[in-house]
Amino acid sequence: MNTTIANLAVGEQGVIKEISLDSIPLALLEMGCLPGEDVELLQIAPLSDPLYIRVNGSHLAIRKSTASQILITKK
Amino acid sequence: MSDLGAIKVALVGNPNTGKTSIFNELTGLNQKVGNYPGITVEKKVGIAHLAKGKNANIIDLPGTYSINPNSLDENIVLNTLLNTGHNDFPEVIVVVADIENIKRNLLLFSQVKDLGIPTILVINMADVMKKRGIKLDVDLLKKEMDAEVILVSARKRHGIEVLKNAILNYKKLNTKPLANISDKIDGAYFKQIKESFPNLPLYRSWLYITQAENFDSLDKAQIESINNYRKEKEKLKKYKLKETIYRYQQINNILKKTYHVDAGKATDLRSKLDKVLTHRIFGYVIFALILMLIFQSIFDWATLPMDLIDEFFANLSAMTKEGLPPGMFTDLISEGVIPGVGGIVIFIPQIAILFLFVAILEETGYMSRVVFLMDKVMRRFGMSGKSVVPLISGTACAIPAIMAARNISGWKDRLITILVVPFTTCSARLPVYAIIIALIIPQERVFGIFSLQGLTLLALYFLGFGSALVSGYLLHHVLKDKSKSFFVIEMPNYKIPSLKNVIYTVIEKTKAFVFGAGKIILAISIILWFLASNGPSDFNNSEEIFSSHAENIDLSKEEYDKQLASYKLEQSYIGIMGKSIEPAIKPLGYDWKIGIALISSFAAREVFVGTLATIYSVGNDDEDNTTIKQRMGAEINQETGEKLFNFPVGMSLLVFYAFAMQCISTLAIVKRETNSWKWPILQLLGMGALAYLAAFITYSTLI
Description:
The complex is a heterodimer. Chain A is 12% helix and 37% strand. By secondary structure, chain A is mainly β. Chain B is 60% helix and 8% strand. In chain B, strands 2-3-4-1-5-6-8 form a 7-stranded mixed sheet, with helices on both faces. Chains A and B meet through helix 1 and strand 5 of A and helix 3, helix 10, helix 11, helix 16 and strand 12 of B.
C-alpha cells in the first residue's frame, strides 16, 4: 500500500519509494533517508509533531511536513 | 602556539562520534579557542606531539553529517577544506566515525576522501563493539576502500598512538578518490567539468559548482565557468541526489563484506529511556524538573563564589588605593580597571555552572530529546526546537546564548532566536532586581510558605521568557522568510558523559566569554570611570564650592567626605548627562540620579547598583546591601516630598530593566553573528521603546 511516513502508526514500517530534492532537503538523504531503505516510525512527539524515525540505521527526528513528502510502501 | 614545521591536520566527523574526545586525547590541554576571521564560530586548535620531535597542528572542525553545509557551523568545514590558499588548509584529514553508525559516517568519509587530500579514517568507540555484537574486518575494509583505517577507543585511550604515527607518515597515503562519481552519474557531463578545471580533483570542482558561494582560492575564469554550470539548477539537483544514492550503494557493498551486527545483542536501553523521556506528560515534567535544578544551582551554588569574588575585588581596590601614591593613575586602577575586571569575573561561577549542565545534557544525548519535545511549541513562536538551548543559556548570559544559536539551520529561526534571547532574565539583571525588590516588596509570605519577594523574582523570570516568546511570535509574522527552513536532527544513543569532555567544554566556553565579552565590559567601565571622575570647571573646583556651603561645615569628617563624593558626581560629565535626560525619564518616576544609573548601566546592567551606591554616598568600604538599601529607602523626592523609591517607581524600574537592551557586549555579539548593524540597532531601539512604554504605563497606573 502506498502512503507517506506521516501516515504510519507508531511501530509500523515501510520501504521508501521515491524521493525528489524539490521537497526534501539533501541533508535528510545524506543522513540515510534513501529510496529502497526500510523506515520505521518509533515515536510521535506529544504535540503530534515531529516524528521520530529509524531509517537505514540512523535515528532521526523530522517534521510532519517533511515526512508527508516521503512516499513509502507499507510493509 | 603555531609551529611552522608542524603537520596541519583537520579533524572532521559527524556529531556524537566522540570526535572531541579524540581531539582531547591527541592534544591534551594544548588547546586554544579562537575565532574564524569575521565570524564568531569557535575555532578549536591544539598541538599533538608525534614521534621524532615532530608536532601536528590539529584543528577540530565543527561536527557535520556531510560536506554540503546546512548551518553556519557546517559551512566552516567546507570552507576550510576547499580554500586551498587558506592558512588552515590541511595536509592531512582525519575523519572520525562511530562504529554504531558507521554507514552514515562513511558517507562523509567518502566525500572527504574524494577531495584529493590524504585522509585517514578513524573508527571510534571500538570498545563497545563486543557489547553491541558488532564485527568489523578492518583489514578488508582498508583493502576495499584503499585507505588507511584505524580502530580507536578514545574512552579507553586505545589506538591514539597508532593514529599519531599515521599522521606522521601521512605522505605515504594515497589521494585517490573513493567514489568514481562521473561514470555513475553522467560521464559526458563530468568529463566536461574535468576539462573546465583540468588542475583540480573532479569532486572538488563539482563542490565548487554546487555550493551557493564562491571561494577565495578561485580565479576569475574559474568563477565564470562555475556560474555557467550553476545555470542548470535542475540538473545539479538531480545529480546531487544521484551522487548521494551512488555513494550509499558503494558503502553498502563495502559494509556487506566487512561489517556484521548480531541483532540479538542490540540493547533496548534507547527505546526504554525514550519512552519515558519523550512521554507526553513525564517528558515535560522531567524537563521542567531539570530546568528547576539548573536554575536552583545557578543561583544557589554560585552565590558563595560570587560573594567571595565581590569581596576580593573590593578589597583589592581598597588596597591599591592605600598602597599606591594618590593620583590619576591610582584612581584609574582602583576605581576603573579593578572593578571592571571584577565585573566580568563575578559572572564566571554562574556561567561555568550553566555550561556544566548544558555540556552534560548534550553529552548524554538528552538535549536532542528536548529539541524533539519542544519543536512544535517553539515553532509557534517563530523558532525551532533547537532554540531551547539558547533560551536556557540566556538566563546566565545572552552572549554565549546567542553564540549557541548558530547550529539552528534556518536563517529566520536563528535570527528570531538571536533577537529574543536578550529578553530572558540574565544574571546581570539579578542584582538590580534584588535591591529593588528588597525596597518595595514587603517581606511577607503567601499561604505561609512562599516568600512574596521570591514570587516577585519568579514573576520577573516569567515576564522575561514570556516577552521572548511574544516577540518571537510577532517577528515570526513580520519577517519574511528568505530561505526554506527545515528540520532534521539525529537522536543519538544515550551515553554516560565523559568527565574530560565536560570539563574541557566548561573551561573553553568560560574562557571564550571572559575574553570575548570581558574586553568590552572592561573598556566601558574605564570610560564610565572617566566620565564620573571628570567634569567641566565646576567639577574641578567642587571641593571649594562644597566647603563654602554653610550647611556642610558641621558635618563629621566621614559624612563630609561622603556628601562631597556625591556632590562631585553631580558635577561630573556623567552627572550632567543624568540631569539632561531627567525630563525624558520623569514620566517614568525617575530623577536625575536614577538617570545616571540608567546611563551607566547601559554598558552592563549590574552597574546600576554600584552607581546608585556611589550616588547615595555609600562608601566603598562597607558595601553592605542593607546600607545601600537604607540609603535608597530614605531618599526623598525633592518635588513631591515623598519617598523616591516608592512602590510605583520601583515597579517602573523593574519593568524597565526587564525589557531594556542595556548591554553593549550583547549588541556587539549580535552584530557579529548577524553580520549587520541592522539587527542590533533594531534590538536596541525596539527593546528600549518597549521598556520606556511599559515603565511609563506601570508608573502612571500605580501612582
